[in-house]
Structures are given as C-alpha cells and as structure tokens.
Amino acid sequence: MEKLIVHKDGFCISTDKTKLNIGIIYKFLSTEAYWCLNIPKDKVLNSIQNSLCFGIYKDDEQVGFARVISDFSTIAYLGDVFILNNYRGIGLSKWLVKTIMDHPDLQGLRRWILLTGDAHGLYRQFGWTDIADPTKWMELYNKKIYSK
C-alpha cells in the first residue's frame, strides 16, 4: 500500500507509520479517550501495527490520529479518531475524516462502521447515519477490559 501524504494550511496528514508519535497516541487514548481509558500500551501498539493509520501533524508535531481496520474490499471500521485539545475548532477533524474516506484503497466498500459517543454531527456531514436495522447487529462487549 502506497503511503499517502496531503498538506493543507501548514498541516500534514500522513499514513506513514514511522512518523507516528506513539507516546502522544498512547497518552491520549489511555487518559483522555472515553472509549478506551487505561488501555495498555501493548494494545495500542498492536492496534497501530494492524491498522491503516492516519497521523495529522503541525510541522513535525503530531496533533491528531485515526485508524482504519479493513479488508480493503467490503468493509472498514473507523476508530480512535482524535485531535489534541489545542488544535480543535479549526476544521482538522473534518479534513481528517474526508482524507480517510477519500483514501484510494478505501473506495467501493459496501459498509463503513464506527462507534461514537459525542461526534455524531461530524460524521453525519460525510453521509454517516444511524444503523439502518439494529436488529441485525450483535456484539460481544467487555466495558471493563482495561479497568485496573
């Protein structure tokens, strides 16, 4: 898979995993992300290794992140999307989601999925909707998996 790099207004989005600042990603996910508080660092590393990752940078400083799990043919799961607090409110999350959804290897998918507790408005701008038929969906969910 070819690495993607796009620039806009002094920021850069890249799929180059060698640019990722694991410390920033781990700190945010383990201490600020309501969906995975206390996640162990080895889980974060493993998730990055097995995903298509998008870092967003100001100069060489990482200011945001997202990752996609996909078979690159029929389905993609968008997860761990965040922009650091100091960089929110300037359109970076919109640009990040658009860049992800426009990625050449993620075109023609039958289904995209994600979970969000607070960003429905962001994703609706890109055509995301509530699950059409929730009676068809099942899950096995361990809410306390990272509890100490």
From TrEMBL:
PROSITE patterns: GNAT (PS51186). Coiled coil: none annotated. It comes from the Bacteria. GO terms for molecular function: acyltransferase activity, transferring groups other than amino-acyl groups. Residues 12-148 form the N-acetyltransferase domain. InterPro entries: Acetyltransferase_Butenolide, Acyl_CoA_acyltransferase, GNAT_dom. This is GNAT family N-acetyltransferase. It comes from Sinomicrobium weinanense.
